[in-house]
Amino acid sequence: MEVGVGFDENDYLSCCGSTKFAKEMAAASPFPSYHRALTVAKHIWFNIVDVNGWLQAFSAHPSIGQPRPPSHASATSAEWSIGEQSTALATSTASSLQELAEWNARYMQKFGFVFLECASGRSTESLLAELKRRYANKPIVEFEIAAQEQMKITELRLGSSLQVKKTYLLQLILIPLLLLKVKGQKKFV
């Protein structure tokens, strides 16, 4: 059995970037498992959060290839964005980053929001190819794809948050026990 999954509104905001999503998730917390949290997150994202909430979440992301997230993104969200793009940045060249920046600008001009793709483990070349492919989409189609990509990112971040929380709780339990053992006490509380 898993420890209950629940965070505060700011934690959920770091996972997604939409205040509506964060409020709804916090109100529905805690969850009996990660699976249940994810099921509720998907329901909230696709059925309760409106277009403005989607755009708000999209705006919390940096353009792919840009290590700095927008100033309104939380510190946790900024750290995650850097980590999620680490493979792309590690596989980039000056020319590929320049081309990516140019296509990001074209995409933003056409669609009005940042190109969203779950970048975790992806190379610059694969992300650039995906950006070029999706640029041909109609705005309504691209909006739906971006929302699906946002949910993939949210899913990764919820999993990361849960892992951090489990590690923290384990430390809260184990450190005192280890300290007791180090002091020579054989009796555990």
TrEMBL record:
Domain Oxo-4-hydroxy-4-carboxy-5-ureidoimidazoline decarboxylase: residue ranges: 13-158
Alphabetical list of PANTHER family matching this protein: 2-OXO-4-HYDROXY-4-CARBOXY-5-UREIDOIMIDAZOLINE DECARBOXYLASE-RELATED
Source organism, top-level taxon: Eukaryota
Catalytic class of the enzyme: lyase
One biological process term in Gene Ontology: purine nucleobase metabolic process
UniProt keyword list: Decarboxylase, Lyase, Purine metabolism
Protein name as annotated: 2-oxo-4-hydroxy-4-carboxy-5-ureidoimidazoline decarboxylase
Biological or metabolic pathway of the protein: Purine metabolism; urate degradation; (S)-allantoin from urate: step 3/3
Entry's EC annotation: 4.1.1.97
Keyword Repeat listed: no
Stored InterPro entries: OHCU_decarboxylase, OHCU_decarboxylase_sf
Pfam families referenced in this protein's UniProt entry, alphabetically: OHCU_decarbox (PF09349)
Keyword set includes NADP: no
Catalysis performed (reactions): 5-hydroxy-2-oxo-4-ureido-2,5-dihydro-1H-imidazole-5-carboxylate + H(+) = (S)-allantoin + CO2
GO molecular function terms listed in the Swiss-Prot or TrEMBL record: 2-oxo-4-hydroxy-4-carboxy-5-ureidoimidazoline decarboxylase activity
